[in-house]
Amino acid sequence: MKNRNIVIWLLDYGIVAILLALVIFFSTQSSNFLKLSTMMTILKQVSIIGVISVGMGFVILTAGIDLSVGSVACVTGVTAAMIMKSGASIPTACVAAVLLATLYGCLSGLLVTFLSMSPLIATLGMMTSLRGAAFIITGGLPVFGFNPTFGLFANGTVGGVVPYPVILMLLVFAVGIFVLEYTAFGRYIYGVGGNEEASRLSGVNVRHIKIMAYTISGFLSGIAGLVLLSRTNSGQPSSGTGYEMDAITAVVLGGIGLSGGEGKLPLVVVGVLIMGVLATGMLMCNINDYVQQLVKGLVLIVAVGFSNLSSKARIRILTKSQV
Length: 323
What we know:
The chain has helices at residues 2-29, 36-61, 69-85, 90-113, 119-138, 152-155, 164-182, 184-194, 196-201, 206-232, 243-253, 266-284, 289-322, and strands spanning 157-158, 162-163. The protein is mainly α. It has a single domain (46-312), classed as ABC transporter involved in vitamin B12 uptake, BtuC (Orthogonal Bundle).
């Protein structure tokens, strides 16, 4: 019994040991790695992916996938920049851009539910279309010349230490965890991902739950797009490229299985931190971009493989204990 519990605990929380091992390894390679400024830089760098990962977590828990998150973030930033450049106020531009991002997410959900499209195809189509739209409306050029005070958020700090984007990321995770753990909607998310037919037979509006998951993903991608715009002070039509892979990797590393209905959002925080530690550590060790891309790909493969194996192992252990 005791050995069984230890194995299950390792399957569930072994990712924390991996994060600590990475921190220890990179700290031995660079004397600057464990400095407070470096830790804050890592948190700031992962804040955008962290916000997106919460929305991605909701979608994957329903056994879906959202490949459009990077493009949604990009279009949101470009849209807000163009609205502000036209003379509108910052709040007006932000609200309008995020509402459009939420609409994009809702549209993905509608494609998946009412047209019965594969989530992979539906969101891949949205990703490509929105990326094309970003280049069309900007003419392929960055959007400059809007209110410079907009950049204060991404570059500001609380007490001169903690960046505002980090506070935002932690707040988004806190709300996401509360919704999944303590609300009926959260239980429905897990139920739909775990057994869609059983949820439908028990009276759950499966279509509604899936649409809401994609809508949340679109909304949070829009918020992330505004943070990215604030950081760069320009609406870049090429921004957000690869964010979808980073978010999926972080979510799977956190133990949320791609088959849906399994995993906890708090560990996704650890997954996000692993991505940040890897990126910053490799950069400080002067590892070139090509190797970094290779490592990211391998991490995704290992994460998915481990997720599948751990699920099977957990089922096997629990089955044996009941015999």
